[in-house]
Every structure is written in C-alpha cells, then in structure tokens.
Design goal:
Elements lengths: L3 E5 L17 E4 L7 E6 L2 E5 L16 E5 L3 E4 L5 H11 L4 H4 L8 E5 L4 E6 L22 H11 L6 E3 L3 H9 L24 H7 L38 E8 L5 E5 L16 E4 L7 E2 L3 E3 L1
C-alpha cells in the first residue's frame, strides 16, 4: 500500500503547488487466450484530495481537503475488469462469487434489473455476475461482484505475473481519476462537462425506470441505460477509461465499523450526480454486491 503523507491545508488552494506529471507508459498482461489486461503507469506525485467547503454535494467525510503524497508509482487498469476477463478467472479456478454462495435469508443472489417491472431489485438468485438483468458481451464490465470477489480475482491474477496485484487505495484512485485536475469532475465543475466521457445516470436510465429527469440526474443522454462496454467513452487526461461512471470500483481501504466496510469509488450508470464526483466516497460490506459494483486492478512492480 502506498505511503500517504497527509498535510492539513489551511492556505488557499491556489497557493498549493500540485505536482502530477502526464503518464505515457503502458503495460499489457496476456493470460492464455483471454483478453489482454492493459495498464497505465501512474507516476508518483502529490495532489489535493477531497472536496472543497464550497461543494454543496459533498459529504462531511470528504472534507477537509488535504495534500496527499503518492510516494511510489504503480500500474492501474486502463479499464475496469471485463466480463470476459472475470469469466476466464472463473473457468480456470471454479470460483463462486458471494452472489452464488451466500445462503443467508434475504441475501441469496445479487442485485439486478427487472425489465417487466421496470425497476432494480435484489438480492435475488437470478442475478449474478453472469446476469444483472440486461444482455452483455465479454467487453462489458463485470458487475454484481463483492469486495471479497475482487480480492479473489486479484489473488488469481497475481499468479500470472511477478508484480503484486491488488486493489488501489482510495488515495491512489482519486489521484489517478483527477489526473492532474482540481475540479469537481476531471472534465470541469459542471455535470454537463462529463458528456462523452462517462456512462452516468442520465436520460436513458430514467427512460427505462420511467422516472422523471430531475436535479439528481445528468441532463444528457449517453446512449446506455445500464452498463456500457468498457472504453466506450473518452478517457481522462492520463488515458484511463470509465474512472467515473459505468460501475463503482472497489478500493483496498477499510472503514473501521462493525462489521468493517470497504470503499467504493467512481460512481456508476445508476444512482446520482453526487456520487460521480472525483471526491465522492461510497461504502459497502465485504460481501455487498450490486449491478453497479465492479473491479479495477492495480499492479505494484
């Protein structure tokens, strides 16, 4: 895990010298006949993490902003893990996800879309990573996976390389998501600036749910009511796709509660504008799985 040197920021942000170089190094990991795993090298640097006091959408745990140092570089998945890549893991290991093995009453199965009732529902046995309720190809992001599932996936992928395979910390994630920017979104401060860059809760989603478009919804139509194939939208300045939107991404960090929770970042095709901000934090128990929870992998040389 990267060491974080966190300093309190009492001065105006404009006085802070933020260092974050553009990243050009890429790495591709080929596992058998499956889809290659493409990674972007994220150089060390420092950035301002969290939301400013002026951000009316921010939660208290996103404040105050602080200067964070990422001391060591790392590789980060160019996209989230795809359905095809996760399928390869399952076929090789016989792994069963939490949605497939949880036998607790009311927790059997996963979360998904009921097209007949035009609503999301769960947990139900018919919903798993194989079927969240809409058709997918192997280029779609895997979803309905828990933090436990993500860790098992990392352990398997770690047997295919000499590098350490892990989930990013949330500081690493936000650093990579912002990619040298300091705005609400890496595209600017206005929600509309994300058009063409992210699959977010928008007009197309509300058309399926038969709900009105309101202030919590992006005003544009990105063409996908649910998940979209990874890389369908333009990348952030460091060449990373779907850092915002499509599916939430599990991070390594633990929230010390009883039971402990883990951090989710990035927002998704569902939910609202608030959760699609660079600083937004989501949380879930280690076994939680939804049709909008996915995986992005980090590698440590």
């Amino acid at each position: 895990m990267s060491k974080l040197l966190i300093h309190s920021i009492c001065l105006l942000l404009c006085s802070v010298n933020i260092w974050a170089e553009a990243n050009t190094n890429q790495f591709s990991l080929k596992v058998g006949a499956g889809q290659p795993f493409d990674f972007i090298w994220i150089k060390p640097g420092r950035f301002v993490m969290g939301a400013p006091e002026s951000d009316k959408l921010a939660e208290a745990d996103e404040k105050p902003q602080r200067l964070v140092q990422i001391e060591h570089g790392f590789y980060l998945g160019k996209t989230t893990v795809t359905l095809g890549q996760f399928r390869q893991f399952v076929q090789e290991t016989g792994y069963k996800t939490d949605a497939e093995t949880d036998q607790r009453p009311h927790y059997q199965g996963g979360h998904g879309w009921n097209a007949t009732r035009h609503r999301f529902e769960g947990y139900y046995p018919q919903y798993t990573w194989r079927n969240p309720g809409w058709p997918m190809t192997d280029s779609f992001p895997v979803c309905d996976v828990s933090w436990n599932d993500a860790m098992a996936y990392c352990k398997w992928l770690g047997t295919k390389t000499t590098m350490k395979v892990r989930l990013p910390t949330e500081a690493e994630w936000e650093y990579a998501c912002r990619a040298g920017t300091t705005n609400t979104f890496f595209t600017g401060n206005e929600p509309a600036s994300l058009q063409g860059y992210a699959n977010v809760p928008d007009v197309s989603l509300r058309r399926e749910t038969r709900e009105p478009v309101d202030a919590s919804t992006f005003s544009f139509d990105d063409g996908y009511a649910f998940t979209a194939p990874v890389g369908s939208f333009k990348p952030n300045p460091w060449g990373l796709y779907d850092m915002i939107g499509n599916v939430f991404q599990w991070c390594a960090d633990e929230i010390p509660e009883s039971p402990p929770q883990r951090v989710l970042r990035g927002g998704c095709y569902n939910q609202n504008i608030e959760l699609c901000r660079c600083a937004a934090r989501g949380f879930g128990k280690t076994w939680s799985r939804y049709s909008y929870t996915g995986i992005r992998v980090a590698l440590t040389p």
